[in-house]
Each structure stands twice: as C-alpha cells, then as structure tokens.
C-alpha cells in the first residue's frame, strides 16, 4: 500500500520512486494535462478529473506540481462548478479539459463545459482557489488553450475536429472576435480531433493536439508547425501514441513544456478497461535540427531513471497491456491498484528496469483466482522466459518467488500469462527482484 500524507489542503506524495509514470497516486485520475512553469520555477499540471468509468471528467479540478519532476504534490479542488459557492455560479459541471496562464501577478484558469461554454476564473495563487467565473464570448466548443507570444500578445485557441484561434484582449478574459481564424488545423489535413495546445521554440510555433490518424481513434498526441501564431500550420507528425495502455483506450490529450532546460510531452493513459479513469504521464522528447519532433514511446520510468529492480515495482506502472488485462483499483480500497482480469495469453510490460549487475530471484505478490503461470521475459521474447512462477488456485494473496537468469543491466520487463482460457487467472500487486 502506498502511503499518502495529508498536509493542509495538499496531498504530498511520499515513498514514490522518482518520476514514475503515472505521476499520480493510486485512485486519482487526472486527464488532459496542461503543463505550465510558474514564476516560482515549479511545473504545474492542470487537467480534468475523472471519477467514473461511465462518463468523462467531473465538476472539479485538481492540481499537480513539482519542483524537480521527482516528487509531486497533489492539491485538490482548486476550482469547482458544483455548488452555489463555487468559482463560476452559472456553471454546473462537468468540467472538461483546462489550460492556465500567468500574467501580471494573476493566474488565469480557462475551462469548458459539455454544452460548449468556455470561461475563465482567476486567482492570485497557482493552486487557487479560483473565483469570479466569466463566460468567454466567441468560442462555443471545448478545450481552451492560451499562448502568449514574445511581444506580449496573447492568443486563444479552441475547437473540435478543427482548431480555431484569435487574439486575446489585454484583460485575458475576452477575445478580439474580429480576429478569429477557423481551420488552423483540421481532421482532414492534420488528423486534428480536439485538445489544442500551443508553444514556441526557436521561432517556430507548435500546435500539439489529440491526433486521430491511427486506428480511427485519437490515441496520439500529434503536432503541426507554423511561422505565425495563427498559422498557416503544416502537419508535423506524432509525438506519442497511448494505444496499448488499456484494452478500451479511446483518446489522448496533452501538452509540451520546457523544464530545467529539457523538453517533455505530457499525456494521459486510460485504466479500468474504460475510455475514462485516465492518468497523467510524462516523457522526455527531443527536437531535430529542422525543428521536427521524433516520436517517443510510453515508459514506466517517465522523466526519471529506469526503475530499480530490487525495489518494489508497482503493477500499475505497467506501460503496455495486451489482451484482457487492465489496471484498476483493488476491491475494498481507494488507494491501491493492481493488474486485474488477467486472461490466458495476456501480456504486460514495464519500461525500463535497471537490474544492475544481475538478479537471481523474482518475487510477485499475487491473488490467485483460477491460477496459472507467469513467465518473466526480458527485451527479447524469442530468448524464452528468464523464469516462471506457478500460481495455485487458492484464492488468497501471497508472494510467490522463482529463480531467474540473464537479467542484468537496463532492460524492459515483460510478464506473459498462461492458464485456463476464458478465466480470470490472478491479480498482481507488485514485483520485486533480488
């Protein structure tokens, strides 16, 4: 069980290995991460909050923050739209994907509602509370984004299936409706689905967005580039694809941010065999000399070093799932997740694990159901299992061990599962090597 210490209105996550993905405690589901570096040098991640497998989002926002990408703080309910005392009294959630910007001593949090209403609330602190909700005239869709150019001019973006943009007025609460440009990026030309986010690097304007160019689902974060904040934008490619994070994953949504001299893509992964219950994640990215961005892949280590094999590796850190297996909460707990609904032939991967000079034993905490066998595999499945664990069908939680060979250095960890077809075989809580 992970330990979470409550300090005032802030949940300070402890005993979490550096920068693991997802960057959230078990039982918390923040999607659509918009990353912003504040004047204090911290990275703040604003996102929508999932709470059900039956619908997207909720009527409140939480906030993630970090000074080093190693330890993270979770601050709850920085803005709500559910009561007469909330930050926008006309709104009655759920709140879809947000964005935030800081200007002239104030933090501006931009939000949207399912009916297409977009609005802004303000605060003197990045964690809120955000108050004085105001509708923004002009935009009438979802997923607001704000960008401030080097000359101080701010721009506002929004849209689904095609992105629209306009100059903002100095109050940061209204837009110049005469400057609206439609079709900045489109589904036909750029695979745009929703979720625009704009940044600038070395004179190039980048729009990143939910990209629907693969498998007829918006599982990718794609991008387009321009030499002006209002285009025209040229299609660039895919930055990351979250297909494989969950059997029922539907979308992706994120942002790109520079932090301490390095660049990162923020995105989310689905859990619970659903299109929702999504979790914010982070991966380092690079730029080629021409400004293009090579595609990166989902990992368990995120912005940090490979996970240490001799420390507990939480099952919910798996970055790839194939088959019926999914990550979800253990029954009777709100703070511990496991790999569950594991069937014959399913596989799960953790990337990457540092085995050091080598390990000799693997320990896996499992709860047996029908029982079966777990094969421990490295980067190269054709080498065959490095060890195998047999799980008896006794229905209890236990830690089962086996000897392993050939696991040294930095490698991926794959587990492959075997047992009676059509039956749930076992649940997995954690893995640890010796």
Structure description:
This protein has one helix and 32 strands. It has 434 residues and is mostly beta strands. The longest helix has 4 residues, at 187-190. The strands form eight sheets. A six-stranded antiparallel sheet has the order 1-2-6-5-4-3, with no helix packed on it. Strands 21, 23, 26, 28, 29 and 31 form a six-stranded mixed sheet that branches. Strands 7-8-9-10 form a four-stranded antiparallel sheet, with no helix packed on it. Strand 8 and strand 9 form a beta hairpin.
What can be said about this structure in brief?
The chain is mainly beta and 434 residues long.
Residue share in β-strands: 35-45%
Strand order of the largest sheet: 1-2-6-5-4-3
Distance between the termini: 20 Å
| Number of separate strands | 32
The number of helices is 1
Name the features.
mainly beta, 1% helix, 1 helix, 6-stranded antiparallel sheet, 6-stranded mixed sheet, 434 residues
């Amino acid at each position: 069980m992970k330990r979470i210490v409550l300090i005032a209105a802030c949940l300070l996550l402890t005993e979490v290995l550096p920068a693991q993905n997802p960057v959230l405690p078990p039982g918390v589901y923040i999607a659509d991460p918009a990353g912003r570096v504040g004047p204090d040098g911290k990275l703040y991640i604003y996102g929508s909050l999932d709470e059900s497998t039956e619908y997207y989002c909720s009527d409140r926002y939480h906030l993630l923050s970090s000074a080093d990408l190693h330890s993270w703080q979770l601050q709850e309910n920085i803005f709500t739209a559910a009561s007469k005392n909330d930050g926008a009294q006309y709104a009655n959630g759920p709140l879809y994907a947000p964005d935030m910007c800081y200007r002239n001593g104030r933090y501006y949090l931009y939000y949207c509602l399912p009916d297409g209403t977009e609005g802004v609330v303000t605060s003197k602190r990045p964690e809120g509370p955000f108050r004085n909700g105001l509708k923004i005239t002009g935009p009438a869709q979802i997923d607001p984004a704000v960008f401030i150019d080097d000359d101080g001019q701010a721009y506002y973006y929004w849209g689904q299936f095609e992105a629209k943009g306009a100059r903002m007025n100095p109050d940061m609460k209204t837009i110049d409706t005469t400057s609206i440009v439609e079709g900045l990026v489109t589904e036909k030309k750029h695979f745009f689905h929703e979720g625009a986010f704009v940044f600038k690097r070395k004179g190039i304007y980048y729009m990143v967005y939910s990209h629907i160019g693969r498998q007829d689902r918006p599982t990718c974060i794609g991008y387009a580039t321009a030499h002006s904040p209002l285009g025209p934008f040229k299609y660039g490619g895919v930055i990351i694809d979250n297909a494989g994070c969950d059997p029922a994953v539907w979308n992706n949504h994120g942002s790109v941010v520079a932090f301490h001299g390095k660049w990162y893509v923020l995105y989310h992964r689905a859990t619970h065999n659903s299109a929702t219950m999504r979790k914010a994640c982070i991966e380092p990215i690079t730029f080629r000399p021409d400004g293009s961005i090579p595609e990166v892949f989902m990992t368990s280590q995120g912005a940090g070093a490979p996970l240490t094999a001799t420390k507990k590796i939480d099952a919910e850190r798996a970055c790839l799932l194939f088959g019926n297996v999914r990550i979800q909460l253990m029954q009777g707990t709100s703070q511990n997740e496991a790999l569950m609904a594991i069937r014959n032939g399913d596989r799960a991967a953790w990337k990457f694990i540092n085995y050091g000079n080598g390990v000799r034993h693997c320990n896996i905490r499992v709860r047996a159901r029908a029982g079966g066998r777990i094969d421990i595999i490295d980067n190269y499945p054709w080498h065959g299992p490095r060890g195998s664990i047999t799980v008896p069908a006794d229905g209890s939680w236990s830690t089962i061990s086996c000897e392993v060979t050939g696991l040294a250095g930095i490698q991926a960890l794959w587990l492959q599962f075997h047992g009676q077809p059509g039956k749930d075989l076992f649940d997995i809580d954690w893995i640890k090597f010796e």
